[in-house]
TrEMBL record, chain A:
This is Uncharacterized protein. It comes from Anaerobium acetethylicum.
UniProtKB/TrEMBL annotation, chain B:
It comes from Anaerobium acetethylicum. Keywords: Coiled coil. Belongs to the SMC family. SbcC subfamily. Residues 5-271 form the Rad50/SbcC-type AAA domain. GO terms for molecular function: ATP hydrolysis activity. Residues 223-250 form a coiled coil. Heterodimer of SbcC and SbcD. This is Nuclease SbcCD subunit C. GO terms for biological process: double-strand break repair. Pfam families: AAA_23.
Length: 49, 667
């Protein structure tokens, strides 16, 4: 969709998702809960100045 | 995880306090516990399972030593506990589980005491680790113990590291090993992330405000419909897949029964039919490939089917143009330019090169001269341009038809061969049907085969439907995304979609890449280990669910062969984790695992014991093996050099030298 994406932000989102999912291997939160967490994290990272 | 020590107190037949230290030396990574039947080998594996995961695998769930229990008075409390000390990520942990048994009742029954204990003994679980000073112990909060243990070695995967001889045979034949493989290789992290993120992208897309744009609104409505349909079709596809697997296994079962027949004719016919079936299978694959090739030749733009099919019409036009009289066809002019372009330059007042185009000047006269030979007024230029384009368009399509005919011939040839082989197959079936016993089995086999084919047809058509849904979903998403990009009110959401979509694509690509490495490596390693462990010639393939299958034949397997196959599988899996095959600069996925086995060779003959023992110490980081004396005699040939610690499990003896079943010690 949009080509001009901030590479640093992309890397941060990738890393954060992997951390959250690694954690969740043992926490075993429900899918909707994880989706909500990831969604909020992406919104926060994208809008960070 | 490397296990340092196991401590037990009054745990089943291990009376009093007992301790085993395991070898942690990487060069001598094997610890053997040798004992006779009923000495308490299985109890060791169960002590680990109970302490680490709370699993109680005993028929009689009371864990307290029966001698101790029999001597309890009403109101007495006795502890039973197991503690495991292990090293993980360079930290030394100790997990300890205690059950406190309370005697509720003690009744005399003909000279024997019946002691009743509380059904739910109080449980105390603790986990602590040693600080770097080697002295200070830091306890882990009670509520985090189970989660912490799952981080060290997940409970779901414990079956692959703590197992008994009777359990090992079934491991490689489990219906779906994907979860275990993905878990052990930590691919589940990437897989879960892609699943969650795909839903996040969809959720962002749903939040796009499409009111005011009919097309985007329509795409949004359709997207919901297609997604629901897709879910439904995926369920149906999974059912069809289960059916396929069921009927395939039934067919293999009947085949194996026929192979056991004592009648030579049946045996011979079965053998011949297997051969024909294998050829038939390969011809059918060839047919699929030939059909795909033909479709591709038709649909791939690089083969220019469109030019070939347009050829008659284009040639007809060219012929008609040749007939035009009085047309100067060889006038040279600027290709693809029309008079309108010159008119534009003149109106603008200067040429592309910047020269002024004032009426009466030379540059003006020159461009007007060019204008006179340009289309549309000068038909010859238009004809010339058309001809050169048409000829270029047709170039290289002359042999399209003959190539297509060749492909069709191939397909017809394969179809004929399939017809012949099907007839041959039928003849062999007739020979089997001559025998009364085999007749019924053969009829059942044929029935299973037909049902398998029906299920496969359903499966294939459902897979195609999923593909159709995916295309429609993609189109809807593109329409919505396009709208979101162009509408100012959705700019914020459009940015979220862009970022999440980009990360999602990266996750998918990374997962696929790593999954391919795992599958490829697993196949290489399982084959390699299997060849070293098994004396016969058999080639192994890993199917889409990571199950281990023989690529050549589908005869019934003995328990021994199943065990060898499972050993090859586990050894390969553990070695892949040990070698950290998926690690790179961004991700550290490799793990260290121990193998704790009880009577692992109970179904394996001596040659295979010998072979397996050569492999195990090299593949796993640590091997702990409770083994029968008779098996150790064979195993020691190859294992002895890797043994760091060795124990004997012996029952205590009474004054008359008779073994006491309720009292066992390590020596």
């Amino acid at each position: 969709m949009e080509q001009n994406l901030d590479e640093k932000k992309l890397d941060t989102i990738k890393l954060r998702i992997l951390e959250m999912e690694t954690d969740n291997i043992v926490r075993k939160e429900s899918n909707p809960a994880m989706e909500e967490k990831i969604k909020n994290m992406i919104m926060k990272e994208v809008e960070k100045k | 995880m490397i296990i340092n020590k196991l401590e037990m107190y009054n745990f089943r037949q291990y009376i009093g306090y007992q301790k085993i230290e395991f070898s942690t030396d990487p060069d001598k990574n094997v610890t053997v516990l040798i004992g006779v039947n009923t000495s308490g080998k299985t109890t060791i594996v169960r002590a680990f399972e109970w302490c680490l995961y709370g699993k109680n695998g005993f028929e009689d769930p009371i864990l307290l030593n029966s001698d101790i229990r029999d001597n309890m008075q009403v109101g007495d409390i006795q502890d039973v506990w197991v503690a495991v000390t292990f090293t993980h990520d360079e930290k030394v942990y100790t997990i300890k589980k205690i059950f406190k048994y309370l005697c509720n009742e003690r009744i005399s029954d003909g000279g024997k005491w019946n002691v009743t204990l509380n059904k739910k003994p109080e449980e105390i679980l603790s986990l602590e680790y040693l600080q770097s000073d080697g002295q200070t112990k830091t306890p882990i909060d009670q509520s985090n113990i189970s989660e912490s243990m799952d981080r060290v070695l997940p409970k779901d995967l414990a079956d692959y590291f703590f197992f008994g001889g009777e359990r090992i045979s079934g491991i490689a034949n489990r219906t779906d090993l994907s979860k275990a493989v993905r878990g052990l290789m930590r691919l589940d992290v990437l897989e879960n992330a892609s699943t969650h993120l795909s839903k996040v992208v969809k959720s962002f897309e749903n939040s796009i405000d499409t009111s005011g744009d009919a097309n985007a609104q329509k795409a949004k409505d359709s997207l919901g419909t297609y997604m629901k349909k897709r879910e439904q079709v995926v369920d149906e596809k999974n059912n069809a897949e289960k059916q396929m697997e069921y009927w395939k296994s039934k067919e293999a079962e009947f085949n194996a029964q026929l192979a056991k027949s004592n009648i030579d004719q049946v045996k011979q016919a079965k053998k011949e039919r297997d051969r024909i079936e294998s050829t038939l299978c390969s011809e059918k694959s060839k047919l699929e490939r030939a059909k795909k090739d033909m479709v591709n030749y038709f649909s791939d733009p690089k083969f220019r089917a469109f030019a070939y099919f347009g050829m008659p019409a284009i040639n007809e036009v060219l012929r008609s143009l040749d007939l035009l009289k009085g047309t100067k066809q060889n006038v040279e002019c600027v290709p693809d330019m029309e008079q309108g372009a010159i008119d534009f330059l003149v109106k603008r007042g200067h040429c592309i090169c910047g020269t002024k185009l004032d009426k009466g000047t030379i540059p003006y006269e020159k461009v007007m001269e060019e204008r006179r030979i340009l289309p549309p007024e000068v038909l010859s230029s238009a004809v010339q341009t058309y001809k050169s384009k048409a000829e270029g368009y047709l170039a290289g399509t002359e042999d399209y038809k003959s190539n297509m005919e060749e492909k069709y011939k191939d397909i017809r040839h394969i179809v004929r061969r399939i017809g012949g082989l099907t007839d041959d197959l039928e003849k062999q079936s007739e020979l089997i049907l001559d025998d009364t016993d085999a007749k019924k089995i053969e009829a059942d086999r044929k029935d299973a085969h037909t049902k398998y084919i029906e299920a496969k047809q359903d499966y294939d058509s459902l897979v195609a439907s999923i593909g159709g849904c995916d295309t429609n979903i993609k189109n809807c998403e593109m329409a919505i995304d396009k709208y979101a990009k162009s509408s100012t009110k959705n700019t914020r959401v459009a940015r979220f979609i862009s970022y999440s979509q980009k990360v999602y694509d990266w996750l998918l690509e990374t997962y696929k890449g790593k999954e391919e490495i795992v599958r490829e490596q697993l196949q290489i390693r399982v084959n390699d280990n299997f060849k070293k462990m098994y004396h016969g010639e058999r080639s192994i393939v890993i199917d889409d669910k990571y199950r281990v299958k023989y690529s050549d034949i589908t005869t019934e397997e003995s328990d021994g062969l199943k065990a060898v196959k499972s050993f090859a599988f586990i050894a390969s899996l553990v070695s892949m984790a040990k070698d950290k095959i998926l690690d790179d600069a961004d991700m550290k996925l490799g793990q260290v695992y121990p193998l704790v086995m009880d009577a692992p060779f109970s179904n394996v003959d001596e040659i295979h014991i010998d072979n397996i023992c050569k492999i195990l110490p090299q593949t796993a980081n640590q091997v702990i093996m409770a083994i029968m004396q008779k098996d150790w005699e064979y195993a020691s040939n190859n294992l002895n050099q890797h043994v760091g610690k060795s124990y004997k499990i012996e029952k205590d003896k009474d004054a008359d030298g008779k073994e006491i079943d309720t009292s066992t010690h390590f020596r």
